[in-house]
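>> Question from a student workshop board

For tomorrow's exercise we were told to take the sequence and the ligand below, predict the bound structure, and bring the output to class. My setup keeps failing. Could a helper post the expected result so I can at least see what it should look like? The ligand is NAI.
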Amino acid sequence: MRVLVTERLAESGIELLRREFEVDVLLGLSPGELVEKIGEYDGLIVRSATKVTAEVIEAAGRLKAIGRAGIGVDNIDIEAATKRGILVANAPESNTVAAAEHTLGLMLAVARRIPAADASLRRGEWNRSAFKGVEVAEKTLGLVGLGHVGSIVARGALGMGMRVLAYDPYVSEERMRSMNVERAASLEEVLEEADFVSLHVPRTPQTTGMVDEEALARMKPTAYLINVARGGIVDETALYNALKQGEIAGAALDVFAEEPTTESPLFTLPNVVVTPHLGASTAEAQDRAGVTAAEQVAAALRGEVPVHAINAPVPAGEGAEFVSQFAGLCETLGRLLYQLTDRPGSHLRIEYRGEIGAYDTRLLDVSVQKGLLTRMVHEPLNYVNTPILAKERGLKVETSKTSESSDYTNLVVARIESNGGESVVSGTLTGPRMQPRLVEALGHTLDIVPERHMLFIRNRDVPGMIGKVGTILGEHGINIGNMAVGRGEPGSRAAMAVTVDEPVPQEVIENLLKIPGFEDARAVTLY
Ligand SMILES: NC(=O)C1=CN([C@@H]2O[C@H](COP(=O)(O)OP(=O)(O)OC[C@H]3O[C@@H](n4cnc5c(N)ncnc54)[C@H](O)[C@@H]3O)[C@@H](O)[C@H]2O)C=CC1
Ligand SMILES: O=C(O)C(=O)COP(=O)(O)O
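>> Workshop helper replied:
Here is what the output should look like for this input. Compare the format with yours to find the bug.
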């Protein structure tokens, strides 16, 4: 498989990829060149400069994974990627310290006018009176967004004796209190109270243009704006006017609406400090981002769900590893359910019982759907496109969880309507190796380790039935691996699950069904 890297990536990341894949590093491709080349690659790694548009994704016939060697993914059309089943993953904590330190650096730089003083001295001037600044201690830092970067900025600012006020509706008051940060009820409160306003939100439709003319007008005339988040969150024309007219004291900017750019009216103002998107540009951050992005893409190309996948369900936190072990079983249950069900309906119900019921099982919900849909759709299915294709086909998925499970420590039950009735399959993992076992099918409890080729039979519970199955399969040279029987009241109905070394041909099934007492028989392929 081939991986394309379009921006400067740490050598450690490239080396990691080269152990498994062919890697091309092509820097400075134009959008047209990227569209032309992308069709040759299975993986793509970018930073913030490459625009992975719908057009690029349309042309990416082989692409399976996009890795972002950094945090912000606003340069990637995730919706288009998801529709095509392309996994997108980033390196979320790789450069948070770098971005936070750059923020603090810019705050001091603009407060003390360091870049301008530096330039003046280099021009041969010793002008101490021209560069009187302000202190940050005892001032209020207003943070917009208190995620990874914002939290590190807060810590640094508190260390410098600042009061920190933050607006982030998704962070609780309790958490803010534990960080010694005051919680603002609104963006307006931060804008009006802060001496330094620093932005740490991602660029999304909600945050684009968040700091506009009206927002800037709320800031104190002595206040500074710092943006190490994303261009586009600030309306640059409104900012230029506010700075020019003294509505705010200054601004420090690392990011711009259009990048790269060397020309902006903002660059002509003396009370502005700018850097060319350097927030993540430290040796340490680049090493981490390069390696993490490479690991994410490598995992995705191996068919795994990488830990930082953005558009696939990743089990997180406690129990993540435990939950992941059930993915194969759940996919098998989905496949079996489809193959044992006549005209499956559109309402899939999944129950998790026992310890598994205590965890985030979204990965498993998708695994069951993936198994169920495999034979219904022509597109290759994966964890990214399965929920979308399931929805497009009108599949409704309902899940329930309970910590109680009578016979097994863990049990997954999948049900779907069929012909007015319901078809049910259940499975579990057992033993130190967490081996999968099917424990319910065709309305009976049974117990068998699933294999690639199986035969499921419904019969009357009368003597000699097992022997007849053995004889017919033997006559056709089909070797039986294992067999499990499930029965109701003696003499009523029974079911058999048989593992075989090769697929059972339809002709064999027809011969079996000619024998009185056999009511249904189906050859099933599970992997
Ligand atoms: N200049 C640079 O080189 C770098 C820039 N960045 C930018 O910084 C951003 C933040 O990074 P992290 O802190 O790691 O992300 P994060 O996801 O940990 O934090 C973002 C925070 O913003 C909050 N938020 C989202 N929408 C909001 C809204 N409308 N109003 C208020 N709060 C809102 C979220 O609740 C979250 O707590 C990234 O998305 C990226 O764009 C990150 C690294 C380097
Ligand atoms: O990680 C981020 O969000 C950044 O903005 C860093 O961008 P970069 O990788 O330096 O192009």
